[in-house]
Amino acid sequence: MDLLERVRETGLLPERAAVVVLLSGGRDSVCLLDVAVRLAGAEAVSALHVNYGLRDAAGGDEELCRALCASLGVELALQAAQRPADSGNLQAWARDVRLGTGARLALQRGAQLATGHTASDQAETVLYRLAASPGRRALLGMAERDGLLLRPLLRVTRAQTAAHCTARGLAWREDASNHDPAYARNRARAGLVPALRELHPAAERNVVRTAELLRDEAAVLDEVVETALAGRDHIAVAHLAALAPALARLVVRRLAEDAVGRLCARAPSRTADILALGDGALDLGDGARAVVDGGLLRVQPTPPGRSAPTPSGQSQLPA
Q1: Which of 1, 76, 82, 239 could form a disulfide with 69 if both were Cys (CB 3.0 to 4.6 A apart)?
Q2: What percent of the chain has pLDDT over 70?
Q3: What is the pTM assigned to this prediction?
């Protein structure tokens, strides 16, 4: 099955369905734009290129995107971005700008937002997260559909997107920063993935397939957690203690993430501490705070100035 058919099989780019493609000028995004035009039709596709101005080659990237969109009959939106002095991690800032700008444009146009992440990116993501963060979430990888965001190329590799571009006569730009060992993801790309391929030629595909299976199983676990909570935002500590340890940890994670509206990777590890707490409060990390009162556990955002636990790991309820 060729690349176009693999993407068609996902159903993510149906004919005449509006989509905004994030276009960097690299091989994967160039491939995605071409495939989107062939599947959805040029009139349904538009592109966004963000010029961060961080590299001497940035102007050349923009020019390639202009020329590609003109040749494919696709409207191109350009966004210049300037990094603030207090922006922190460079890659995180660039990602936030790209996705934020893309989401706003997609919403204005009643469209989905598509990125060029491939199976190669998926394997690197799983390996990096597994090394950097314990827990099942690290193995789930990226979903093909995540709200407004689509990843139509997750079933094909980086080598396959390059072959597609070559066969179609599509030029692309190489970003030297993708090979800079200063970035952890680049070290995973240059070291971990090739090492796994040496162990087994299907290693990359097996990592991706494992992530797919675990995402399916995660949906089942989510239903079990829903049943344990029965729609409530709290749970009796005695009920929590009676659950299987793995389910108890998942319940604590759900309560914490619902309370603060973001991932709380450290919360499950505090489950035993919650069960031993009695009435009181306990910092769970990531801005979440467990509060037990009258034998009922609730999780709240950590109040300002109360983020650090006492030396015993517990803090008292405020008077």
Answers
A1: 76
A2: 92
A3: 0.75
> By CB neighbour count within 10 A (0-12 exposed, 13-18 middle, 19+ buried), where does 285 fall?
middle
List, for residues 33-43, the tens digit of each pLDDT value.
Answer: 999 999 999 99
Please state, in angstroms and rounded to a whole number, the distance separating the CA atoms of residues 282 and 280. 7
* CA–CA separation, 290 and 260 (whole Å): 12
Residue found by looking up tokens 């100035």 in the block: 305
Write down all domains in the chain, each with its CATH number in brackets: 3-208 (3.40.50.620), 232-319 (3.30.465)
Residue-by-residue DSSP string for 94-108: HHHHHHHHHHHHHHH
pLDDT digits (tens, 9 = 90+) for 15-32: 999 999 999 999 999 999
pLDDT above 90 (res 113): yes
Which helix or strand (DSSP H or E) is residue 241 part of? helix 237-242
Asked if 210 and 226 count as a contact pair (C-beta separation under 8 A), the reply is no
Question: Do 48 and 22 meet the contact criterion of CB atoms below 8 Å apart?
Answer: yes
Helix, strand or coil for residue 146? strand
Estimate the crossing angle of helix 27-40 against helix 158-168, to 10 degrees: 70
